[in-house]
Amino acid sequence: MDASFGFAVDPDEEMVVRTNRGSVAATTVQVDKDVSVTSLRTEYLEDPMGMDKPIPRVSWQIQVNDKHVRSSSRRSIIQQSYQLHVKTTPVSLDDDDDDDTVDCCGWIDCGWVVSNQTQLVPLQCDSVTPFTKSDIDIEWKVSIRLEPENKGDNKNTSPVIVSDAARFRTAIVGSWNAKWITGGTLLRKEFTMPNVKHYATLFVSGIGYHHVYLDGKKVGDHQLDPGWTDFSKQVWYSTYDMTTELQQQKATTTDNKHVLSVILGNGWWSCGPPPGTNQPMCSSDPPQLILQLHVDGKPVLVSDETWSVSNDSPVQYNSLYNGETFDARVAERIHGWQSPGYFTATSSWSAATLATSVATNARLVSQLFPPIRHVSTTPPLTITIVSQSSTGTATTKNITQLVDFGQNQAAVVRLKRIHCSRGMEITMRHAEVLMHPPYGDFDGTTIYTDNLRTAQATDRYICSGDPKGETYTPLFTQHGFRYVEISGLDHTLELSDLEAVELHTDVQRTSYLHFTDPLLEQIQDMVLSSLKSNLMSVQTDCPQRDERRGWMGDAALTAEIAALSFGMGAFYTRWLDQMMDAQNPNNGAMPNFVPPLNSEPDGAPNWQTAYVMILWVLSTHYGDQEVLLRHHESIVRYYYFLELSYNQTGIAKFREKYGDWCPPPPHPKAYEHLTGAFAFLGDLKLGMEIFRNSPHPDAPFMLRRLTELFTKTAPEFHDSFYNVTTGVYMSGLQTEQALPLYLGVVPDDVEQSVLNHLISDIEVTNGGHTTSGIIGIKYEMEALSMLGRGDVALDLALQTTYPSWGYMLQNQYEPSTTVWELWNSNTGGPGMNSRNHHMFGSVAGWMYKYVAGIAPLKPGFAHVQIKPNVLRLDGISAKVASPYGDIKLFYSKRETGLFGYDITLPPGTTGTFIVPIAMDDRNIGRTHEGHPMEIEMLESGRIIWSDSGFVAGVAGILGAARENDHVHLELGNGSYQFQVSVAVDLELKDQ
């Protein structure tokens, strides 16, 4: 048995434009076959369900077809204008209209708009928008014209490129017909299937977690749904397209009777039943459900008191921290409960009751970002017998086995077709590492779980004895583990008997960075694995112990690499809304983690920073201005809170709590008031960029205000913390030097000496190692690179002895596949010691920004900087997904002084390519025995830079200039192949 609880328009010819609902105009247009319009998205998502914006924003990309991708004739492509087209579903848009068969809406022309904008464009079409009706199916597409290659051509005769269609379906607008119901963890409702003429939609939220089934078949692929929120303020609901499911199921019956059934789990909401989930601040109320099924835009089935409920569930216990117990004998006994005709007039079934708990007062909000899903499976690497014992009779064995999956991950274990006797209990205990010194002796088979603290992380499966074998995947829990200890079986497991099922918010991997150096490659993989493990509808700190909270400080440090690596736009948009809910209504402060568990105190500096950091990331990396408008009042209140904090203490005693968290022992933590003041000034700098990008009418005022405050307090930072006698900040720790260097508040006359001290402390005093914690290491790496010493930062990244990322990967007893919480996690004790924590993961973002050198100079990567710092490496390959398309860099060292750079900028962008005049990243800006360096550059074999300077004439290269020790090339979009030759000019010698 399976106990996973599914119990049992042609662009080549003509474009047809409907100018209004009654007339159609056919226009023959010229088509550009070399260019296509692709990657249509609505509010960051592909064909989303449950769109709750009356005027959603749509995006598209312009793509040059492969055969022309390297052609210099297809460079500097610019969209001249666009035209959106909208088609609504052929059902009535009028709730009072009984005729729901009218084809009301063909393709509607929204009119040509002269604009190069392709990202987050409001879907405004006067005759049909805003979309203020529930459950309306919308299709849209876009036509574009490009700027003519010959500037003298008539723009209106430019070829038209037409996209395929995208679609979305609207959310429930206004109040629900359904009611919150409770009374049991199993819920069912039989109904007669209506005729589905066009489409069907299910809107549902079951808290803590829910799974929905139609006639026993699971609806959708969401896991641990809905996502975690502050249930007193908002509850997310999911939206499913049920068209195919209803039509297929209707075809399988003669009486047209069907069942919607739901099983509920505790999640973050409920303490039980049964009690003892160990979740902090959980409700004493049981799980509850709200559900609404629509057919052709109208509700036909809702949750109410007519539903039947039961607590006779095979899920005997479930806890996010502790695990799940599943009794397959119960599943066998109640077999058929998800099918029509099941008899519910027994003592275990009753009528649902209306829920009266706090969640019924919360806002129901569409969960408009990717859900948690089962995203991959991993087979065991090894299975080792730990021990064998006899139970009951001498012939019955109890074998304990250790399974190593080879990768620390957020996952559950799936048992596959296991043969076991009725009543046999299989116990699965999860762990990140094996026992080793100093925690105990190392024998290679004993799991270490003390770092999970009170989280039991144990799943139990009680067998039914099905002779066909039994399959089980936990429904309502998740663990962070590499190793699983399995006991209770009487036979040894085969590798094919089980697998780890990875689960996390299913954001798509969008960018890649590969190195010829295997250590850098491993570090990048390690960070991304930790990030994925901690995307659980919010960005958590860890996936395994009794915590797993949305710690803001961790997210502030890794928001950039998350946005660079994954499609985070929709995810961060919803989490920011939760932050706005969590903001202190009295003073504008943010808490330490979101969702808050109760009335949380004001967060620590550098933790509250996550709010403005993520806003900055959405604005800078995705070009999102609307999010700045929506959050404007909250942002302003936050900055008034910061100013009030400054007025109360000044810079010298600026408030702090955690400081530069987790420096490597035996090194002390940096002076906490300095790190607090850094957060204050750093937030001011972020705010200045936010208000510079914001279209809000009050943004210029706030920009001036923050600029004045920064100008006033920057000298105060130096005066408060700089020791004139020693020539360093505070006690001279690396963090204490790196933070002011990054801020740019060090006066010019001492900047070099402070930088020299930082480098000396790294290279000489500490033998090439950092002494910094989570804040210091991020800005230490960035400050070194910003000030021309990226070579020192690269040395830190390549270090393999303690403390370093390489040490995490290469230590004796627990070589890691994910980032540790501590530099010394292998010896740091059990109390706070996750092996899957992303807060030290900022190094991966540094690799993109300062090794590959790819960064946005204008919002949304409209103008890109590519400034590689790679001369010591043999090669790298980078692909950064921008809103406009992929930015690509391929670098190779061909021989001493000869380098190749292949660069691609997507249509709609421009770029600045900055090339160092050096043969090694250690000698940028230096001479060779007094002789200067000279550089020659070719693009596709044509000289573009020589001793005499820029050589014009290559398409797409708009200009070039030498600035100090680099050559700056201004590029239009397109693909380029550069060859750079650097040599020593022996004829010249510095004076």
Automatic annotation (TrEMBL):
One MF term in the entry's GO annotations: hydrolase activity
Domain Alpha-L-rhamnosidase C-terminal: 853-919
Bacterial alpha-L-rhamnosidase N-terminal domain mapped to chain residues: 200-375
Domain Alpha-L-rhamnosidase concanavalin-like, first and last residues per copy: 397-503
Coiled-coil residue windows: none
TM spans (from-to): none
A family per Pfam: Bac_rhamnosid_C
Protein name (Swiss-Prot/TrEMBL): Alpha-L-rhamnosidase
